[in-house]
Write a structure and sequence with these properties.
The chain has 706 residues and is an alpha+beta fold. It is built from 21 helices and 28 strands. The chain has 4 domains: 2-176, 2-Layer Sandwich (Beta-Lactamase), CATH 3.30.450.40; 180-305, 2-Layer Sandwich (Beta-Lactamase), CATH 3.30.450.20; 323-475, GAF domain (Beta-Lactamase); 484-705, PPM-type phosphatase domain (Phosphatase 2c, domain 1). Residues 1-13, 174-185 and 292-308 have low confidence and may be disordered.
């Protein structure tokens, strides 16, 4: 592209960037027969993608995504971040992979997103959409044409940067528009005027470019007064999100849609919308009967502007449902809200004990700028405390305005030029304040203030849930840490290492446990798994561990320890079971006596590096049968051997055969078994420690006689 557009020519004679982007985008859409698309330019300083050119759809449709963080879970961000093509074949796939988009745009369409990048630099991304009738897969021809167009864009951006005219982010999105009125032939106008039903032509923004006389008669307004305006601004009884949704659905899916609306006082009209890539044709007739069930019309303010509000709120509401802890909420606000409103900084404040606390921040390289707010009494006169205590949002359009009302040294926490202080009120009580800082002075319109206030309500609900979750999480981990040994004793002639990893589902707490204790000149070890992943399981685990210690202290053999613990669980009638392996290890004699209760078989690595699964006789799970017997098995342990005891979370991996998983653990033990035991433990649990999801807890205890 640079060779055609500007090779060797002066920079001031090169075409404007927006013209080049729009031309390439239009050519791309024609090439693959897509009906809409957009070009995003990456702002590397903020890691934000900014929409610079758009075609085929009104700008209002993309309002929540005009500025998106590079880490946002949407197709263009994934394409730019991972430098790959992202294909979403339809409505169901969009709902499964990108639910935030599906909530705002629940219509049948297919989408492809691609990076605009050279070998060294990512310049941005592109997306294009097709109607829902597109085949479920992207053809090889479409892939090649899209990739070629993105390569041309990357070449142009690389050339422009070398010329000292880099393509910069520009939120002033260029739209491809068509003035339908100029393209209507005179004969077509006369023909339409003779038809007995109403006809209207709308451009992509919903403005009426043509309306015949019948349309004016049916709508109750002269046809010439309809021209140049949108139906929902000219006709208050059409200003209803339901009707606007039909308009959006027709444009985005490129499928015919229809709806029935009541023209006061009692005339029902039928509207049928025929979409194309340049606009809509609308046929208006009298409805034969009122719809059932009916829906009353609404008479409210500006139609298209409200779509921006609804879109942003729906997008954030969908995103916040995924938030678990406080940091999740902060991350989502930073990714979803900051780019959308142009905020440069974010501070999330909470309160407890009559003082403010900084829950998190984004955009400040020097954290001490906001740390001075941590611990500030709520009686301090600052905009943050006032918003928290009164529940009234505050918007400051300049530093002068802020300092006039709050001369305190705490009033301006940073070098920003404008601020929005949003009170976070949930369940009727304040939970915090969200502070958004803007690099330049700005005027907060009434609509923007309403949007930000509504967003504050959504953040408050998510933050309240997150604070409760974090409190439960701390409680659960405190209980788990209290029930598991803080350290393992150092025993002569024995090297030991242990690991515990909670499951990632539920409260991150469970019933897996291990212990090691001296028995004269020998040692006793136990590992077990109580059924469940909650506080009840953890509490029962503590009882089992205490019982094992007590029976060990009175000198019972491994088999007798298992039998006594089993009777205890049966007597407790908890309706929960436990698996367990208990052993006495005499390093001086080079042997171990083991008893097993329904637990996975341990692994033994001999000094020559071979690993085998020990075939131990055993009894049923603890807590099932009061009279169960647990036989004892003697296993020789030469110095340098490694005995690996583990719970089933180490080998039970979704989609992997159990035997294959056990063999993989054995291979890792064989390869790493001669290293220090702490390194061996890390090697054995690494595959589950790095997994994003763990359905079960993992406990591991390694023993090596010296």
């Amino acid at each position: 592209m640079p060779d055609r557009d500007a090779p060797g020519s002066p920079a001031d004679r090169a075409p404007p960037h927006e013209a080049v982007l729009s031309r390439v985008l239009t050519g791309m859409l024609d090439d693959v027969q897509a009906h809409s698309g957009a070009v995003y330019v990456l702002d590397p300083g903020e890691n934000v993608l900014v929409m610079n050119a758009m075609a085929g759809l009104p700008r209002v449709f993309a309002a929540p995504w005009e500025r998106v963080g590079l880490g946002a879970p949407i197709p263009v961000a994934d394409a730019a971040r991972e430098r790959r093509l992202v294909w979403v074949g339809g409505e169901e796939e969009m709902a499964g992979r990108y639910p935030r988009i599906a909530v705002v745009l629940p219509y049948p369409f297919a989408l492809a997103a691609l990076p605009v990048a050279s070998a060294e630099t990512v310049y941005g991304a592109v997306y294009v959409t097709w109607p829902g009738s597109h085949p479920p897969d992207l053809s090889s021809r479409e892939r090649e044409r899209l990739a070629a167009a993105c390569d041309r864009l990357a070449e142009y951006m690389e050339w422009a940067a070398a010329q000292g005219r880099p393509v910069l982010p520009d939120s002033g999105v260029r739209l491809q528009e068509t003035d339908l009125g100029e393209n209507v032939a005179a004969e077509a106008v006369r023909m339409a005027a003779r038809l007995p039903y109403g006809l209207c032509a709308l451009d992509l923004d919903g403005r009426i470019g043509y309306a015949n006389q019948a349309a004016g008669d049916l709508l109750g307004i002269p046809a010439e007064r309809l021209l140049g305006a949108t139906p929902w601004t000219t006709l208050p009884w059409l200003d209803d999100p339901m009707y606007e949704d039909s308009y959006r659905a027709a444009l985005l899916s490129q499928q015919i849609t229809s709806f029935v609306a009541l023209r006061p006082p009692g005339d029902w009209l039928s509207f049928r919308l025929y979409p194309s890539t340049t606009g809509l044709s609308v046929r208006i007739t009298r409805a034969r009967a009122a719809p059932r069930p009916g829906r009353p019309p609404r008479d409210s303010g500006e139609g298209p502007g409200r779509l921006v509000t609804i879109s942003h709120i729906l997008s954030l509401a969908s995103a916040l449902t995924e938030a678990v802890g406080v940091q999740d909420v902060i991350d989502l606000v930073a990714v979803e809200i900051m780019p959308a409103v142009g905020s440069r900084t974010l501070v999330m404040l909470g309160s407890s004990g009559g003082r403010l606390h900084v829950l998190g921040q984004r955009g400040y390289e020097d954290a001490s700028v906001v740390e001075r707010f941590d611990g500030m009494p709520l009686s301090a006169r600052t905009p943050g405390t006032r918003a928290l205590l009164t529940g009234v949002p505050a918007f400051f359009e300049s530093q002068r305005q802020l300092e006039r009302l709050y001369p305190s040294r705490y009033a301006t926490p940073d070098g920003m030029a404008a601020w929005a202080y949003l009170p976070l009120i949930a369940s009727g009580r304040p939970v915090g304040t969200c502070v958004l800082g803007f690099a330049e002075q700005r005027t907060f319109s009434a609509e923007e203030r309403a949007v930000l206030t509504s967003v504050g309500g959504l953040i408050a609900q998510a933050l309240e849930r997150a604070l409760l979750y974090d409190a439960k999480h701390r409680l659960a981990h405190g209980l788990q840490e209290a029930l598991l040994p803080h350290t393992l004793p150092e025993l002569p002639g024995l090297e030991v290492a242990a690991r515990y990893l909670p499951g990632t589902q539920g409260m991150d707490i469970g019933g897996d446990f291990y212990d090691l204790l001296p028995v004269g000149t020998a040692a006793a070890a136990v590992i077990g798994d109580v059924q469940g992943h909650n506080v009840t399981a953890a509490g029962l685990m503590g009882q089992v561990r205490t019982a094992v210690r007590a029976y060990t202290a009175v000198g019972q053999s491994p088999g007798r320890v298992m039998e006594s613990t089993n009777r205890l669980l049966v007597d407790l009638a908890t309706e929960r079971f436990a698996s367990c392996i208990y052993l006495h290890l005499d390093a001086a004699r080079g042997r171990a006596l083991l008893a097993r209760a329904g637990h996975p078989q341990p692994l033994l690595r001999t000094p020559d590096g071979r690993v085998r699964v020990l075939d131990l006789a055993g009894g049923p799970l603890l807590g099932i049968e009061a009279g169960a017997v647990y036989p004892t098995t003697e296993v020789p342990l030469a110095p340098g051997s490694v005995l690996a005891l583990y719970t089933d979370g180490l080998i039970e991996i979704p989609g992997v055969d159990l035997d294959e998983s056990l063999a993989a653990v054995a291979d890792r033990l064989a390869a790493a078994g001669s290293r220090p035991l702490e390194e061996v433990a890390d090697a054995l649990v690494r595959h589950v420690a790095e997994a994003r999801e763990r359905g079960d807890d993992v406990a591991l205890l390694l023993l090596r006689p010296r």
